[in-house]
């Protein structure tokens, strides 16, 4: 259904450190890089971070959105979560089972440097 997802960020280098750490643990890599954008994927660019032009909304003023990234197993969820925290993300729900979403659903939640809620999930399908 989706071709790609783009997230606007206030500081490309700071956000790249966060997404580099998470995507590396999930088997992704940089597929495109320019002065104002970086794209990640496994076989094609599907997650883009683009430096925002203009004013930056105040953190906490409104939901910045949510993106869920697929992990292959619980260990990958745990590793991506730890890497994201170490790279400047903030905790929004530690790794663990989420039975309300299914008997095999295991996920972690963190916020990127701009406040976007990032979910790393295994066992969703």
Automatic annotation (TrEMBL):
Q: Which domain of life is it from?
A: Bacteria
Q: Which residues form a coiled coil?
A: none
**Residues covered by the VOC domain:** 1-123
Question: Which Pfam families would you find in this protein's record?
Answer: Glyoxalase
Record's CDD domains? VOC_like
* Protein name in the entry: VOC family protein
Annotated organism of origin: Paraconexibacter antarcticus
């Amino acid at each position: 259904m989706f071709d790609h997802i783009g997230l606007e960020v206030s500081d490309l280098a700071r956000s790249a450190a966060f997404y580099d750490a998470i995507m590396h643990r999930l088997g992704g890599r940089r597929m495109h890089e320019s002065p104002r954008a970086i794209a990640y994927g496994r076989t094609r660019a599907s997650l883009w971070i683009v430096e925002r032009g203009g004013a930056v909304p105040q953190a906490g003023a409104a939901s910045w959105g949510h993106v869920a990234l697929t992990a292959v197993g619980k260990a990958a969820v745990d590793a991506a979560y730890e890497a994201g925290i170490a790279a400047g993300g903030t905790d929004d729900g530690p790794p663990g089972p989420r039975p309300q979403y299914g008997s095999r659903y295991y996920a972690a939640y963190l916020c990127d440097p701009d406040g976007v809620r990032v979910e790393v999930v295994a066992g969703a399908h």
